[in-house]
């Protein structure tokens, strides 16, 4: 009989996920800002990359953890709460989305500060790429934003155009075989790979 | 570059997840009651089993969909809202948990009516098996229950003893290899498999 525990936790250590943590897709996670106490939990995810959506520099402690686990950091600086509100920058979200849908970066964690607005917008755009109906996309956004959901985020997600992204993408094929084993194949389309490289942000890598 | 769409949806069909849908773990999903309009989305999950937590018979339409997709139904009849409230039955939740942690039943969808209380309690117990700290378990319960969260469900999850379950379990090993490919190995422990079979509920199978 199988027990859903991670391979590096044999039942002894209590795991503390980051605030507002949840799983988005196979190999895609979202959360609020990871604290020191969450590093043990995060190590069970075997992350390859992190998408960080705040403008502030990544804390030294977190950088060290990424370094020791060989995790790439993709930072896309988006302003948090400002007065008057700063509109969510479409181009930046599109760039983040390009990193997010590239399975070579998975397993990947998306986070901002609370995991509600910036992260919620990016995940919402991903769901549109995945062809989810809009009401389900907005329901998911609201579930993770709780009482702090913002009308302007919903409008941003609704208006976000994913057709441009679709045109430069090919597809992941999910294959399910046998006992819960799930496989993805990444199919390349050479021309599009070139397009992607041009838009790739600078990754902090290989310290 | 990889696009996170399912293999049987090439971008044309709009997918409608069931209400309150979310991913719990690799191969474990939760939601409210699936309706006809959700069947297209559910087919992309390649489900092997469903855990259904209500006392009411499964609708004929849903049964037909399970049959044509060769999906096993595990029903554990738990009462919904009653006056006075019926306590969540520990033994039934434990039996459902046994089915849930057995990766041979994955990919699996857990659902009740709203995906809030009965489903939330079962997922909460799973998180305890996974050694999540209690505050994170309760945060997840509340996120999916929204304004309808119940104090007695939180108390149930807190009090639920997973040690009995742990003793008859071995482990899943997650292995992450290369481009987003994620593998699980199921390690068997023969004695425990026997224990599990004795507790296995009647599954609706192979119509």
UniProtKB/TrEMBL annotation, chains A, B:
<dbReference type="GO" id="GO:0016791">
    <property type="term" value="F:phosphatase activity"/>
</dbReference>
<feature type="domain" description="Tyrosine-protein phosphatase">
    <location>
        <begin position="20"/>
        <end position="169"/>
    </location>
</feature>
<protein>
    <recommendedName>
        <fullName>diphosphoinositol-polyphosphate diphosphatase</fullName>
        <ecNumber>3.6.1.52</ecNumber>
    </recommendedName>
</protein>
<comment type="similarity">
    <text>Belongs to the protein-tyrosine phosphatase family. Atypical dual-specificity phosphatase Siw14-like subfamily.</text>
</comment>
<dbReference type="InterPro" id="IPR004861">
    <property type="entry name" value="Siw14-like"/>
</dbReference>
<dbReference type="GO" id="GO:0052845">
    <property type="term" value="F:inositol-5-diphosphate-1,2,3,4,6-pentakisphosphate diphosphatase activity"/>
</dbReference>
<dbReference type="GO" id="GO:0005737">
    <property type="term" value="C:cytoplasm"/>
</dbReference>
<dbReference type="InterPro" id="IPR016130">
    <property type="entry name" value="Tyr_Pase_AS"/>
</dbReference>
<dbReference type="InterPro" id="IPR029021">
    <property type="entry name" value="Prot-tyrosine_phosphatase-like"/>
</dbReference>
<dbReference type="InterPro" id="IPR020422">
    <property type="entry name" value="TYR_PHOSPHATASE_DUAL_dom"/>
</dbReference>
<dbReference type="Pfam" id="PF03162">
    <property type="entry name" value="Y_phosphatase2"/>
</dbReference>
<dbReference type="InterPro" id="IPR020428">
    <property type="entry name" value="PFA-DSPs"/>
</dbReference>
<dbReference type="GO" id="GO:0052847">
    <property type="term" value="F:inositol-1,5-bisdiphosphate-2,3,4,6-tetrakisphosphate 5-diphosphatase activity"/>
</dbReference>
<keyword id="KW-0378">Hydrolase</keyword>
């Amino acid at each position: 009989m199988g027990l859903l525990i991670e391979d590096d936790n044999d039942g002894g250590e209590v795991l503390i996920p980051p605030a507002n943590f949840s799983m988005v897709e196979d190999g895609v996670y979202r959360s609020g800002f990871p604290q020191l106490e969450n590093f043990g939990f995060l190590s069970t995810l075997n992350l390859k990359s992190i998408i960080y959506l705040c403008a502030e520099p990544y804390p030294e402690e977190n950088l060290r953890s990424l370094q020791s686990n060989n995790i790439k950091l993709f930072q896309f600086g988006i302003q948090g709460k400002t007065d008057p509100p700063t509109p969510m920058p479409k181009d930046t979200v599109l760039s983040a989305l390009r990193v997010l849908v590239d399975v070579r970066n998975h397993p990947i964690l998306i986070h901002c500060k609370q995991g509600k607005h910036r992260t919620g917008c990016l995940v919402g755009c991903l769901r549109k790429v995945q062809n989810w109906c809009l009401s389900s996309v907005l329901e998911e956004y609201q579930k993770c934003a709780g009482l702090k959901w913002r009308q302007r985020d919903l409008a941003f997600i609704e208006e976000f155009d994913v057709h441009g992204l679709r045109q430069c993408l090919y597809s992941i094929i999910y294959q399910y075989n046998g006992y819960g084993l799930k496989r993805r194949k990444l199919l390349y389309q050479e021309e599009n790979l070139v397009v992607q490289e041009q838009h790739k942000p600078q990754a902090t890598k290989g310290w």
